[in-house]
Amino acid sequence: MGYSDFERRLLATYFSVVDGSEHADIYLVQNLPQEVAATLNGVYSRSSKSMRDQFLDRLRQGLEAQGRRLEDLALGQGTTDVLSAVMADKSGQFLKTYAIDHGHNSLREGSVVHLAIERVSQLVTRFVQRERRCSFEESSTRYISFGAETHWRDPDVMAAGGAVAGAYEQVLASTFALYVQASAQLLEHLRRVRPLQAGEKEAAWLRTLKAEAFDAARYLLTPAIFTKWGMVVDARTLCDVVSELRSHGLAEFRLVGERMQQQAERALPTLLQHARPNRFLQTVQHELTAFAAELGVDTAPVHRGPATGHTELLAHDPQLDDRLLASLLFEHSQAPFAELLARVRTLTGGQRQDLLQKLMGARGSHDSWPLALEGAAPFEFEVLLDFGAYRDIGRHRKGFQQQQLLTTTHGFAVPPLLQEAGLAAGYGEVLERAAASQQRVAKDFPLAAGYVTPFAFLQRVRIVFDPRQTAYFIELRSGPEGHFSYRQVALDMLAHVRKVSPLFAQFVRAKEGTAFLGRLDSEMTADERRQRRMQAAGDS
Description:
With 540 residues, this protein is an alpha+beta fold. It is 52% helix and 9% strand. 36% of the residues are buried.
């Protein structure tokens, strides 16, 4: 049955295609209130009707319950408001019944919100951005100067006053003052030692210098510094994030969780009802902290002064090459995996090389590794690296990562540029004092001490990546335009992979060139891309 003219005009507001194809009828759902959209998605499994027909049926039923007809709607700008009034209560009840009372959590994934989170600390930012099911965009410490003194002061520490509050303030004041000073001095140093060359574009050259200066100066920032970020998240995931935040031991985390929930409920009034402090999460945190202290593993020997990070390979698949080759073949055969493994083991080294060369030789510069290369046990690394670099590594959420409580006991990294510019001595003195003050805060407030742990200090993290993600990480983070510290981690990972699986490793396209020139090339390319876009826009 076809649609009336009125129904067609109504549907065109909310669906990109009104008259669908007999096969592959695909259309965009748009302009609908989030819970209405989630409801329409949810009833798919309970009806043979299309989403367009479901929409008309539910809207008609809602209007009839009010003694009105579908044709009574005035089409136009205010139609969406009418939908909310007519359909939201019914949608909310449906979602409450199935998503909340009956536990069909997948229905919550049909509602998505976009939140802007601003003027929050780096500490709470890193905590939230561990979540693998969200999309984030954050202010860059490389391209933005954090030149305003905007730090979170933990209310519990401030209420304690005395020496502990003084120690907290000492770190913020001394590190930030040197950050501002170093940012300017490093840029001037780079202008002198790397002047603009013939053929280089000044805008790209200056961006490159600023990025390198900020890369080094940001080691003096602390996790208390404010940042901002955008977050696109579905209701199911947001409920989990809010519960974790509201169950946390730090006041800022609880506050951020409450405000995220308040704002999201404006669009999702039904779906965040379970987002509340969670006793189980609180118990786990308390008991494991106590157990670590009981075992005597809650502290580490204090290393004073500069220190060097390192990367250890904890575990890998001893059958890596066999399992990856069998995994590549699996979808193209009818044999059991065990038989594929047995067949692969009969191949000579030359046959394996030829097979992979045929496959990987066709891979373009922007092509992903084949999905089948996830089909082996993962690489497990333990890395001691500065927190500044881990902020970037932590964004690789396709895998498993753990970070220990922020501390100053492992010493601090010294960016080579600071040494070149003659700033290393003053930098070391400031960080030595900051370490003593941070440790004073940590005695009474171990969680809040994270706020005053400068980015320079080394932290121990555990990273578990499948082979495909390992290759992706190495290729991306070894780029010469990247941060020198995480770049070294990527190259160290590659060295470990080469030792245990040279066949796999030879197809990883690591970038081992000169850092500054690589970054300049990247910025020059960005300028060229920008000019081409502007030219195309002008032509059109």
